[in-house]
Amino acid sequence: MPTVLVTGGGRGIGLEFVRQYAAAGWNVVATVRSAGDGDALRAFGDVRVEILDMRDFEALESFGERLRGEPLDLLIANAGITSPGEMRTAEEANRFLEVLAVNSVAPTVLASVVASNVNAARGKMIAITSQMGSIADNGSGGWLAYRASKAALNAAWKTLAVDMAREPISIAMLHPGWVKTDMGGGGAPLAPAESVTAMRRVIDGLGPGDKGLFLNHRGETLPW
Ligand code: NDP
Fold it and tell me: Is the CB of 178 within 6 Å of ligand 1?
């Protein structure tokens, strides 16, 4: 059975990816920050739980070493955080750095350290980004750090895609839609199950020639 690695598997969209891929019989490697979150995930099926805080770059590096030699059919770099839009205080500036670390730097380091695993399986690398990372689509402002972090994620993964043009893998950045989670809030129109079902369909449709795509959960191309 194929293997998928999902970051931030303990709740929200990540948890739903873990649930759906485990139900489909995949071997799932799910990262969480707190060991207690692992118990619920193991109940879904063949789920290996790894502790990983995306702010810990040394842990990310050694995580890649731990996976050495294991083919990975799919990476879903899902873990992410948001922040308010104000940027006046030192505290807000530090939060901006943290948002960049978790949303932009960490998924890019992770993709790089597991690239050989994904190559070995001729697999796929997916970043869960946001339409709010689109500079062209930014008509309403706000959410400064979050928007900037997803734009940086898109730029970084697009670069990975160009750098890995000859590798037999797919690389895409997916906007999940507006989803009812702790981050999306109760007013969001999509349930996690609907969003993840739709994104899995998009992921299934990717071929090795697909590199650096920026798509929504319906598979529509988004403007950079
Ligand atoms: P949630 O807030 O519900 O879940 C966030 C997940 O990220 C949790 O599993 C959380 O783990 C994990 N996480 C946060 N910080 C870290 C960290 N430092 N290290 C490791 N894991 C961490 O958000 P969603 O499920 O809604 O979001 C998932 C992804 O989808 C994010 O990248 C988000 O930006 C993106 N997205 C979501 C949208 C929405 O409408 N919900 C819209 C567009 C994009 P823990 O439980 O330990 O905190």
Answer: yes
Provide the token pair at 214: 């920026």
Instruction: Report how far ligand 1's centroid is from the alpha carbon of 166 (Å).
Output: 31
134-150 mean pLDDT = 96
pLDDT at 19 over 80: yes
Please tell me the predicted confidence (pLDDT) of residue 84: 73
Report the percent of the chain where pLDDT is more than 70.
100
| Ligand 1 within 6 A of CB of 57 | no
Domain boundaries, the chain: 3-216
Whole-number Å distance, alpha carbon 183 to ligand 1 midpoint, is 7
Give me the CATH code for the 3-216 domain, please.
Answer: 3.40.50.720
Q: Is 155 exposed, middle or buried (0-12, 13-18, 19+ CB in 10 A)?
A: middle
> Please, what's the b/e burial string for 24-39 (b: 16 or more CB within 10 A of its CB; e: otherwise)?
eebbbbbbbeeeebbe
- What pLDDT is recorded for position 181? 98
Q: State which amino acid sits at residue 33.
A: R
Q: How confident is the model over 24-67, as pLDDT tens digits?
A: 999 999 999 999 999 899 999 989 999 999 999 999 999 989 88
Output Rg (C-alpha) for the chain, integer angstroms. 16
User: Is the minimum distance from the CB of 106 to ligand 1 under 6 angstroms?
Assistant: no
